[in-house]
Automatic annotation (TrEMBL):
It comes from the Archaea. Residues 1-22 are annotated as: Disordered. This is CGCGG family rSAM-modified RiPP protein.
Amino acid sequence: MRNSSADPDIEPVTRREHDVSWSANLEKPRHAADRDLVVSQAEDAVEATAAGTHVNLVTHGDHGRPENYLWDELEAAFEGIDLEYVDRCGCGGHVTRVHVSE
């Protein structure tokens, strides 16, 4: 599994493999301050998602729509994923659904 941060004060977005669809919260205050952390932890989340399922990446609204900074990074890092913009959250964040192919 990728290591999104060498900083022991930053809690990882996932601690296990996910064999069902799930959501990763990438909209905490530390995510608002660090777009690279958002990208890194999004990659961690996709890597931890089992084939045939999906992960909803909930990203901080301060960075704008994830298609503009996250999608190219994920497509470069992974084969066999499909990206879908779901909606804007009531809290201001954005939801990208990443389907992991079997």
